[in-house]
Specification:
The protein has about 140 residues and is an all-alpha fold. Helices cover about 55% and strands about 0% of the residues.
Length: about 140
């Protein structure tokens, strides 16, 4: 019991170096996001959970709830302008997710591809757009 309280206190202070072992200890994260630090904390948790295949229905609901909180914060603090081109939009998403060109390349299947696309030497393919829209949870139309 005391260990759980310590973990919750550490998470509240943003000292989350690893995920708690028990799901109930994550409940402290289900609060509105009002700061960049808290946003980064929740993003870290989502990065650890999204894509896992061993989650229960309740755990999937928890991930969905966190995603809703993140979306609300992003819509208020980091809105994507609809009139941006695909490269500007991609650049914004990379910065917002602390990703570099190498990360983009790895995501798209080739380390050098990130730089080639961002320097407008090659356009985004349908496959790239699908990968990006899934990774960043945005409409594929943002990359057209």
């Amino acid at each position: 019991m005391l260990a759980t309280k310590k973990k919750k206190a550490n998470m509240a202070r943003g000292k989350m170096s690893q995920l708690p072992k028990k799901w109930d200890a994550l409940g402290i994260l289900l609060k509105p996001i009002h700061s960049k630090g808290r946003y980064n904390q929740v993003i870290h948790v989502l990065d650890e959970l999204v894509g896992r295949t061993d989650l229960t229905k309740d755990q999937k609901d928890f991930v969905e709830s966190l995603s809703i909180l993140v979306e609300a914060y992003e819509n208020e603090h980091e809105p994507i302008k609809e009139n941006n081109g695909p490269i500007e939009t991609l650049n914004f998403l990379l910065e917002a997710n602390n990703m570099n060109l190498s990360d983009l390349g790895h995501l798209l299947g080739s380390r050098s591809l990130g730089s080639v696309i961002m320097n407008r030497k090659r356009g985004l393919s349908k496959k790239h757009i699908r990968i990006l829209s899934e990774r960043f949870s945005v409409s594929p139309n943002l990359f057209l």
